[in-house]
Structures
1.
Amino acid sequence: MITNTTLTCAEAGSGGGDGGGPVVAGGNGDQERLARAGLSRVIEPGDLAALKVFDGLPAAEIWDRLQQNAPGLERWSTRLADANPHRDLERAATAGARFVIPGDDEWPDQVEILEEAGQLTRRAGVPFGLWVRGQANLRQSLTRAVSVVGARACSSYGEHVATELSAGLADAGVTVVSGGAFGIDAAAHRGALAVPGTTIAVLACGVDVSYPKRNSALFSRVAEAGLVVAELPPGCSPTKLRFLARNRLIAAATQGTVVIEAAIRSGALNTAGWAEQCGRAVLAVPGPVTSRMSAGSHLLVRERNAVLATNVADIIEAISPYGTGLTQLPRAPQSLADTLDPDLQRTLDAVPVHHPAPATRIAVTAGLDLPTTQQSLEALTALTLITQTPTGYHLSPPPT
Amino acid sequence: MITNTTLTCAEAGSGGGDGGGPVVAGGNGDQERLARAGLSRVIEPGDLAALKVFDGLPAAEIWDRLQQNAPGLERWSTRLADANPHRDLERAATAGARFVIPGDDEWPDQVEILEEAGQLTRRAGVPFGLWVRGQANLRQSLTRAVSVVGARACSSYGEHVATELSAGLADAGVTVVSGGAFGIDAAAHRGALAVPGTTIAVLACGVDVSYPKRNSALFSRVAEAGLVVAELPPGCSPTKLRFLARNRLIAAATQGTVVIEAAIRSGALNTAGWAEQCGRAVLAVPGPVTSRMSAGSHLLVRERNAVLATNVADIIEAISPYGTGLTQLPRAPQSLADTLDPDLQRTLDAVPVHHPAPATRIAVTAGLDLPTTQQSLEALTALTLITQTPTGYHLSPPPT
């Protein structure tokens, strides 16, 4: 751990590394933004070593120290030569993107839960900032948001359900957040776009990089109607570890994570794990037990206490404050016959469908005494459930 | 309530109603059996009024009082004229059936839980006896038994899963109990028969009555390989209330109830409710959320805490004593790359697939200092995960 010294950014700017350029480019806000942009280039998302060394230090100070090649920071030296936050900010602007940092109006405070989650697992940590492409306001878009994630190689069932649920969520004013991958992710974005509603793609690469390439038209539409967000600066490619780090962000930024089709080994289960650690709702959509694609969802319900989600209402209930947004339980339609008292039910059960039977016969069938049976037959006739004929009683034909 | 008098069965036999014939036909065992056979004819399964009036009285005494037309018992008088337990026992024998009563070797004690359940709901109560057709021993067959129930109008998915799970249960030595209806019930019986294993059909009519008629060949096969069981005496037809009463018996007789495909309004949910009240395991098999047939199963999991069952192991775990029969959790296959320490993972992530890159370039991509990167590259080369060439490193081709 390095101790908190009084190095200023100005000193760092004039005497620092050659790659960063002047870090002071206006007020403190710009200085902070430049430092954070630089850090987002140099330090990998969720870098455990960085979390340990820099824990609690202001971003500008971390940046200064890196610039000065302070001892013990060699680990991050190799990228410093390439780091140029000015250039990254310009590059972002060219791509129609901005860099949102803590303190900005648009900053979604809820991702700071990752500071706590970082004490539990590796690859946590709050992003230095978020690169954001699109017109929507990031913070506002995330005030009521659900992540919908799942298998890339999903089934048509999974794709259908992801599209329908996401459209329903968007229609209910909930932002649909996903990872922009093939399969469930793409279906989730498309479902929300179709409404039209707000959707956010959180990428494991730069916001100007289309990965996967075949989804580039989708990313353009997402950026038009919603937002494309990344922790990594422009131009960065995705890596396996970046996907995992990205998952923590999706989980932390939303009130709940819905898993639709996930194999046992799946990034969606990783996202669900992060959601759990962040105290967010974890939901899983069931599917056929004959489908390997639903095995992960079923595992979440059985072993990790995820809420079984079958429709939009289930999801909204799970992300709503306690006691609000309650789902309407499906109810069986009640027929008049269901509400009868036991003797009436037994008598009704004993009345023939077509061929009339006398009360004495019905009493034997029902196993009731004759007076009770006769009373019941009168009541059932009055309710028009049965019909009396000269030779006895039969069921009334069902209403047409 | 009538008080406990000292009327004997002999008196009842000589002076009682004309329909019953002599109730004493040998030792006390026969007397008790005749009384219970008579009661199973006169009193409807789960008759709440009977439970109240006769609570705690020995069966033989209840039968005596009915025969004597004691005041307050008019309710059950109409059927007395038709009741003839001798004839019913003979009729059962002709159909290859016997009447099993409490105290018999074959009596399954666990159904007596229904005496307690009767305090909670109507239509409970312990059966006076069970009419049993087939060679198997009822008690033994039910020492490890699961009821598999569900929709009549099931989907081919439901039918497939019911068959497979029941075959798996039967193969594991678990008796499959169901209700002999179309759909899931029939598939459950067939699955168990195919193994071959033991299956029991519990009917809402007499054991000599084939309802539904189209399942009569199935009932014959069930009676050959397992048992056909009913609370109602021979010749009785099913009624709506008898189906509900039958459900309590299926739930009480088994260690767990598995619901496969049940609409919101469904007899299977009624059985699940009884299983819950009897303290038995309740399990539900998920299905597509797009299928109305699985809505009841999902409701059980979401709102009534049923265990999500995806395979035979899940079911066996649920019915096994605590800590035994545990299911093997599905595990993702671990690759060598998963077990690497974070620096090795980051380095590996930064190594190109095909075109070799030098260590200096890989260090920048990985965001690690050069010495760490070089150490990691050596370790990864030793693990044969990467290959060194004169111009740098690339990933080793995957093993074939």
2.
Amino acid sequence: MKNVVIVGIGLIGGSFALDLKQKYAALTIYGIDKNEQHLDEAVRLGLIDEKATFEFLDKADLVVMAIPVDATLEILPLILDAISDDTIVFDVGSTKEDICLSVKDHPKRRNFLAAHPIAGTEFSGPSAAVAGLFQNKTNIICEVEETAFKLQEIALTVFKDLGMRIRYMNPKAHDKHIAYVSHLSHISSFMLGKTVIEKEKNERDIFDMAGSGFESTVRLAKSSPAMWTPIFRQNKTNVIETLEEYISNLEHFKNLIKENDFDAVFNEMESTNHIKKILKGIQ
Amino acid sequence: MKNVVIVGIGLIGGSFALDLKQKYAALTIYGIDKNEQHLDEAVRLGLIDEKATFEFLDKADLVVMAIPVDATLEILPLILDAISDDTIVFDVGSTKEDICLSVKDHPKRRNFLAAHPIAGTEFSGPSAAVAGLFQNKTNIICEVEETAFKLQEIALTVFKDLGMRIRYMNPKAHDKHIAYVSHLSHISSFMLGKTVIEKEKNERDIFDMAGSGFESTVRLAKSSPAMWTPIFRQNKTNVIETLEEYISNLEHFKNLIKENDFDAVFNEMESTNHIKKILKGIQ
């Protein structure tokens, strides 16, 4: 592997660039981004060695696509058109079904691996890139059997070298489960932030009363709307289902309080406490 | 100050014990707790020097009450009955209106200071105590003018020595605002945990897919039901109001997705993003 092209040099793309450089000294890392300022910043920060254009893609050994999932739908087929027969392309998007469908019949489908490394922070842009972001993180691979053997191997070696744990799953199952363990958390956090900001808009110093508990539950409300809007669009059906169940649980809890059934309120919380054990496995 | 009695030697009481001992070398710290195992553990961990009973309270200079808010309503008047004229008692409860009302006409009302240090973790019991927990944390004091001058001074000096920032507020306003910035976060977190556990109960390994975002938003679902149930009971009206506004915001967001109004979905998130700036002040 000599030439890597990162398409979208933000938090995730930039973090891949940092780790790849550190693991494989001989690599040259190229960046493509529609945001020229981000590209300049990525060069300045040492994330990429050089800027590139689509014309360069046929010289790439590996292409990492780390752009919002709506842009991936549009750009992925064009990237497959432009690469060589020996190039492996993987994406990192938080939805997988539409993305897999978008290249289902592409003549270079076997050059693509659909991936979702469960890693990130609430920040974005090249300056948010951090070394070691993927260490011990889960990476969900979808439709691995649609990717050519030797290209699977290249991508999987990279994932392993960067410290990821690999899980295989079909795109439909990925999108359904990720709605629960990721997409719903983001909405609950955004709406919690909205509820409190609306209420306290004339009393900003009320946030002096907020502690680390509030900070933890609204952390995700700092996330990028440009990244999350297309995720909710592509995963609409699953996201609506999770929201309906979440709202119904909140309504139920509210009604227990209204009816002074505090034994039931206690039980609701106690039976959720075992999330402790479940979370122990999460880094 | 020579003798301090901690009533309730859990996370908060134990953390007070640790810091008080470290700041004031000459102190002897006594513990009272209905849980004998916790008392033994507190002695073993070096949180308290000795176990005590109510009979000892008239020798106390300072009494810290760190028990669930329903127990505080019951026990606080009995403690005031038992202390000397020169003892200062403060509580640390997450509700303030009912607690202040419960001793409104007590002959020793002036020996009590109503306090709420906004500090803690999702853990509980003596082993959860940590040194320095209150450093740079906000402590809301209610009805300060109801406490005797010289006793105010003792408590405020302790708070200052432990590194807290003091804010004064009336109990009604405290309970209303804390419902938004603390109580609602706990419910949103518990119900998020419940929603995901219910859905994934037959597929426990799905939690492999959960990342730090999920961990952050459900962290508070590890909290103690014995502590939180009486808080929701005492702050029922405010908690129900916050829940209704939160549910209505979630419904609205869901409907925007349903109606494919993704410009509005984007705007909802973008206008909440400035929570970043607000949170900068929170430790």
